[in-house]
Amino acid sequence: MQLRNTAGGYGGLMIGLHWLVAIAVFGLFASGWWMVDLSYYSQWYNLAPHLHKSVGLLLIAVMVVRLVWRLVDRKPRALPNHSAVEVVGAKVAHWLLYLGTFVVLASGYLIPTSGGSSIQLFNWFEIPSVTGEVKALELVVGDIHYWSAWALVVLATGHALAGLKHHFIDRDATLSRIVTTRQAREARSR
User: Fold this and answer.
1) Element (H, E) at 119
2) 108: buried, middle or exposed (CB in 10 Å: 19+, 13-18, 0-12)?
3) Domain span holding position 101
4) What would the pLDDT profile of 132-176 be if each residue is shown by its tens digit?
5) Contact 152/104 with Cβ under 8 angstroms?
6) Phi/psi at 119 (nearest 5 deg)?
7) The overall pTM is greater than 0.85
C-alpha cells in the first residue's frame, strides 16, 4: 500500500488518519453526550469519563501527526469538475475541521486540569496540568468544549454529506480518494 499522497489521490497514511479521527470524534461526541447523564450509582460513572479523557488525549497526538503529515506531504490536486467555489470551500472546511478539532481537544484537556490536577492516560501515566489551579477556568472551557464539539460535529456532518453528494450526484472520485488509495482502486479495476 502506498503511504504517501499522489497528485491523483490520498495515500494510505492520510486515509487511515482521516478515518481514525472521524471515528474518534464521533465516538467521543456520543460518549460525552451519554456520560453527562450518568448517575453516581452507575457502574460507568467513573470509567466513562476516564475513557473519554484518555481517548481524547490520544487523539491530540494523532491530530498532531496528521497536521504535520498534511504540511509535509503533497496535497492531491482538485478534480477537474470542481468549481473554484468548491475548491476554496473544501480548503476552508478542512482547515476549520482541523481548528475545531484542536479547540475541542484543548478545551477538553483544560476542564479537568484547570484545578491543577493531572489526567491519567489509560492508567499508563499522568499528563500534568499546564495551568495550575485557575479558579472558574473549568466553567469557561467547559462551555467552549460543549459548543465547539457541537460545531465540529455539525461541520463534520456537512463534510460527510458533501462527500456523499460528490459520490452519488456528481459521480466523481472525491469520496473514493479518501476511502482507498489510487493503487488499490486501479488494482480492483483490472
Assistant:
1) strand 119-121
2) buried
3) 12-189
4) 999 999 999 999 999 999 999 999 999 999 999 999 999 999 999
5) yes
6) -115, 135
7) yes
